[in-house]
Amino acid sequence: xxxxxxxxxxxxxxxxxxxxxxxxxxxxxxxxxxxxxxxxxxxxxxxxxxxxxxxxxxxxxxxxxxxxxxxxxxxxxxxxxxxxxxxxxxxxxxxxxxxxxxxxxxxxxxxxxxxxxxxxxxxxxxxxxxxxxxxxxxxxxxxxxxxxxxxxxxxxxxxxxxxxxxxxxxxxxxxxxxxxxxxxxxxxxxxxxxxxxxxxxxxxxxxxxxxxxxxxxxxxxxxxxxxxxxxxxxxxxxxxxxxxxxxxxxxxxxxxxxxxxxxxxxxxxxxxxxxxxxxxxxxxxxx
Length: 287
Known about the structure:
The protein is an alpha/beta fold.
């Protein structure tokens, strides 16, 4: 029997057998994150030991994803670890969403959306909290974007705009370059081979999606963050600045360096520092 095509096969073609699915979910029943993480590692190794490369799962309540386990670290981690994968970061976004008391939709911008796991997490939280939500997912890499769009379609996701743009300081075109075996580290190159992708400023992306206010933005664009944010802060009205920004800091020697430091210079305060990321917020009344 021929194996299903990972591109065209409908969701469910790579579903786990019932015993394997039970084992995959087992770590979520443990009481402490430390116990969960240890169990997740063991379960992941056991389920991948047979050569499994792809799995169709309910990644968050009501949200479904086809996970590629061998070439994307975040997809691999969330496979048996949906409760602990970036749980501190996602908890901060969820808290902001829970506090949203406007009839207008909560606006989440996923800049560098990858396979869409943050977007799916926000959609799951919005459904549970009964909050209206609008999402802009920006992903320039064609393969990552294909996975993102498949996951959104499999989840019957609505109110999500996907843009195939790389973010930069100005209009132009760039090429995407893979980095090792982790598709989460695909990055922009000024020159390359094959088909280029459009380069656009962040403000242009928001305008394209009809967004005039941003509640939370997650930005992970592999080193382009300072350049993008410098232009955005200089040229966009303060009313368009995100109320909360989640940004990677693991390559910075100190919080004052890089994109996080740029946010601090523009009035943001550090709300929480994680191992790899930081949460920065504009004080109430600053927007």
